[in-house]
Amino acid sequence: MGHKPSAQTVQRVLQSKQETRAYYDKISSVYDILAEHSEGPVRAAGVGKLALKSGEQVLEIGYGTGHSLLQIAGAVGPRGRAFGIDLSEGMRARARERLEQEGVAGRVGLICGDAGRLPFRPSSMDAIFTSFTLELFDTPEIPHVLSECKRVLRANGRIGVVAITKEGEEGFAIEAYEWTHRHFPSLLDCRPIFVRRALEAAGFVIQHASIEKMWVPVEIVVASQRSA
To answer: How much is the mean pLDDT over the chain?
Structure first.
């Protein structure tokens, strides 16, 4: 496969935000067909690890077609509130349809925007969840996104991240994934990252970390905001 970066190097994102938005708008109607079978169980496990409670306010970054928002809304109940931010208008339309069908749209706020600038007040969220989204941000952007998460989380608030990982031994699947990202970024716009390390570098305290097998290894990490 030719020259490849070292195992410790996280690749850069090669698509612009505009290209990423257009890509997800285009595939929003078929995204579940393409990815739900593999991503769904791991994503649901990540939400479960957050141990959400009735009455909490929870934000999802990169809500896609709305499966996790539905799970979050069920966990926080009628006294709680779920919010979501996603770059794609197409995904917002799909998510809204799902939430309306399940009768919970009234307690879920859907926003179309960039998580690099979260439109929420400081210390306004009990928890944040994101799956298969952090690896879409370019390497220099990840610390900034996590800083925004820290800003909107309350003292002792939690963050749960599910993402394709470079932790552990790299096998053929990760090498093929990174090769495809490097040569065909319009087909594979994300890349493996170091999730736990990024959260620790941002000042979060790790509560749970595991590596699950999809067709590539995936990190599920839950961390807490340090008390103010």
So the answer is: 92
